[in-house]
Every structure is written in structure tokens, then in C-alpha cells.
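Re-run with default settings, no changes from the original entry. Doing this only to confirm the output is reproducible before filing.
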Amino acid sequence: MNQLAAIAYVSSATSDLSVADLEALLLSARAQNARARITGVLLHHDGSFFQYLEGPEAEVRAVYARIKTARQHCGLIELMNRRIEARCFEDWKMGFSRAPKSLVLQLSQASWATDLSQELGKENKPSGIKLLLEFWRNAVRGT
């Protein structure tokens, strides 16, 4: 079985993105992620991005290498880059939501580390993952 990995990062758009620009970005990401069996979410607020990717380790690393060289964003800050036991967003090839600025800031400042000597169980998820999952559950429900 392939080892799973996850990467979380924040970055800033290099220029203003129109709705059409964001839609094109999402269509491309979703197609690439489907081929690579990668799931995750992308949050956007006024030129700031937060992305969480998960999937087979080699594929996640390849997609991330491509993301790091993309000209649409700059100032990439890696928050997490590690192996994981299970996916958090297995049904989302690339979920997308506009997010409040406060959430993007909270995610960028949250803890993304856990005690690596313990398995990543539900109770042992980093606070960044807990915050992201809570927001995503509420966003998907429309609350």
C-alpha cells in the first residue's frame, strides 16, 4: 500500500484574480489531482491562499513541486509536510471555499505538528487540522 502524505501551505497571489481566474485554477487543479489520486481543499481570501493536499506520497510531492514554481503566487510558507495515516478530505479532489481573512490567519498561525511517536488519531490531530476540518464541515453544510 502506498504511504500517504499531506502538505499544508499559505501563499499570496501575484496579481488580482478574477472569478474566471479562480475557476480556471480550480478546474486545472481538480483534473491534475484526480489523475494523481490527491484530495484536499483550497481556501482563498482577497489574494491569500491556504491549501491542504493529501494522497500517495510520491504524487503529493510531485504536485507540490509544481505548485512551488507556479507564477500565480509568491511568499509560499509551508505549514506541514509529513506522512499521515489517513485522509481527512477523501471525497474532495479539490474542495474550494472563500474564507474569512481571520481563518486564513488562524490557519497560518496554528500548530501543524503532532508528537510523531504517536499515531495521528482523531484526538491527536494538530490544531491546524482541527480548525480546518471544523471550518470545512460548516462550509459544506452551509452554516
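Residues 19-36 form the longest helix (18 residues). The chain has a mean pLDDT of 85.
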